[in-house]
Amino acid sequence: MSSKDLIERIGTKNVVIGVVGLGYVGLPLVLRFIEMGFTVLGFDIAADKVAVLNQGKSPIEHISNDRMAEAVKAGFVATTDFSRAPEADILILCVPTPLNKYREPDLSYVISTVESLLPHIRAGQMMSLESTTYPGTTAEELAPRIEGRGFTIGTDYFLVYSAEREDPGNPDFTTHTIPKVCGGHTPACRDVGVALYGSIIDRVVPVSSTQVAELTKLLENIHRAVNIGLVNEMKIVADRMGINIREVIDAAATKPFGFVPYYPGPGLGGHCIPIDPFYLTWKAREFGVSTRFIELAGEVNGAMPDYVVDKVRTALNDRCKSVKGSRILVLGIAYKPNVDDMRESPSVLIMEKLRDLGAEIFYSDPHVPVFPKMREHHFDLSSVPVTPETLAGHDCVLLATDHARFDYGMIAEHAQLIVDSRGKFDVDLDKVVSA
Fold it and tell me: Model pTM?
């Protein structure tokens, strides 16, 4: 099948979309394709997740069961059987790209996914990688494996890179309203990718290569990481000077040009911002380039959980209490407000550090009723209700994630001590310590 034939079939929606990885990136993509009239087959290695999805239920809080049920009703099927890959005309890979313990790229999920698909791919398909990664991954890791099956990329198989741009829980931007950057291994590949994504997304931005598309995604996230690092460092300076950094930021933001407000916090969270900069720093070393600016921002952001813990320790000490033996209630353990996403949450690091110092740790999060199983972090805890009695029964309340469902007025009234890492409380209150 030529690129022209595949583009024509995409235009008439006479293709089956295979989405591999049904998490925070893959599942919204599944729903968008279905809503636009495509047939979708989902792949995931987690049998329990597949079973839940096939029942028409959503494993992600901000995706409703009703939307999932409608998808199943429309013909969506999830499977763990990668031998069904030939049924799909398009294979879209939405799998994790974490760092290993040495803070180097871990492409094991991408590679294992491709290796699982390779025996089953066929001529005329398109494969798209959406996972954030370093420039060259698509050309250096995926292309040779596909060519090893005897296909000619750009002629009888098509390969593109188009990074996800999801922002879970953000009601202002959805899958179809966020512009999509797309680069192809060849111009014919790019044309197929643009046709595919253009069928479900309002604006597609074609670029000249997969490497350009890969670096674009990294630049977006490094831009955020560096600016957050800057404002976190400014927070520490302002705190020493007795100045409210959030008042400073709000005042600076009145300038109508040349300034974009970023706000400090207890550290970076989510699957992108804490991880992606290190993909570039690792790859840059191959070219003899030192990315000192990026690495410095990473150091500043990585130190913020310790900064918050020190604030808790000092605040308790000022009240003649030690961290050891204190009952500390952490408010919000998801990595950002109003979602259930725990990936790389700085709240968890803070909880561990306080526990190691001897504190008795509790948490409340309306989006995370039970502390989930995580690869590197272990707490046998469930969310406690935020009531006047609960608040008064803790030596310190630490606001780590500022969910909208928290009653901040009630918290301010009944908590004995508040350490605020999100700027939600009146810093003039004697019981509030800014962190």
Answer: 0.91
